[in-house]
């Protein structure tokens, strides 16, 4: 338990170092974007590929993937229900609020938490597979529909998904794993080295990006944002834990899927809100608050599992 606390504090510290470095001028205005770009196109795909090949397809297409899907879809639907019945949000605000409340920051925060807190990079793989293969493209399509009024083509969406480096890395990893091919030593070592660079680069990039973060344009405020934050940090891990129990997960496996469901909202939610020109305040507030609040939530979940004797 003590090691988990130190790991979470280390994540917060590295984010703080990125913020200080940008604030003090050690990192330029383009540093956050450059670090994020290098992570997105090189380091994170290498880590995902290595994790999938090392884990095998049985470690992805199983209960953890079902938990990721059930908790994500369930949380989004419940937010939509509350938004339409009680908050009276517009279709655009409802769509982007649902995205912010259920889409996990698997690549940017999930990888560091999986590596440093759970000591298992493969723990984030089911979430990445579900989100990259279905959830994220679906929300971007919905955001385009409610925001711009344009009707995106199936071919256009397919091209975006097919060009995603994480999708390519996952496909290659599944191919190696399903075919039973041994990974060449050079590929094994190089992807491991590149993948090891992903967590600190992600955290430094996010810390630096906080300095230049701009305020969102006015739309629905505190009530909707609070609802999205509560869904993200409380409802989604609760659903994940419940579904995990129903699927027979116990001990570290159950704690892992619960913690992964408590990841902060993905920055893609704010990108989609900006594109749609709707729900920007909800998305920005949810991303910002959950990014920092998720860390103590992770510690709390771990403490609960240890306190109940579910994890040694």
Explained architecture:
The protein has one domain (2-210, 219-305): Na+/H+ antiporter like fold (Up-down Bundle), CATH 1.20.1530.20. The protein is 77% helix and 0% strand. The protein has helices at 2-23, 31-55, 63-87, 91-102, 106-116, 125-147, 154-162, 165-179, 185-209, 222-246, 251-261, 268-276, 280-307. Helix 5 (106-116) packs across helix 9 and helix 10 (222-246) runs antiparallel to helix 11. It starts with a helix and ends in a 5-residue tail after the last helix. The mean pLDDT is 84.
What attributes does this structure have?
13 helices, 312 residues, 0% strand, Na+/H+ antiporter like fold, mainly alpha
> What fold name stands as the CATH topology?
Na+/H+ antiporter like fold
- What is the radius of gyration computed over CA atoms, rounded to a whole number of angstroms? 19 Å
Strand content: under 5%
Main β sheet profile: none
Series of secondary-structure elements, N-terminal to C-terminal: HHHHHHHHHHHHH
Known CATH architecture:
Up-down Bundle
Q: Can you give the mean pLDDT?
A: 84
Query: Which bin fits the share of residues in helices?
Result: over 70%
Q: So what's the CATH class?
A: Mainly Alpha
Quickly count the helices: 13
General form: globular
Low-confidence stretches: none
State the total count of DSSP E strands.
0
- Structural classification: mainly alpha
* First-last Cα distance: 9 Å
Count of discrete structural domains: 1
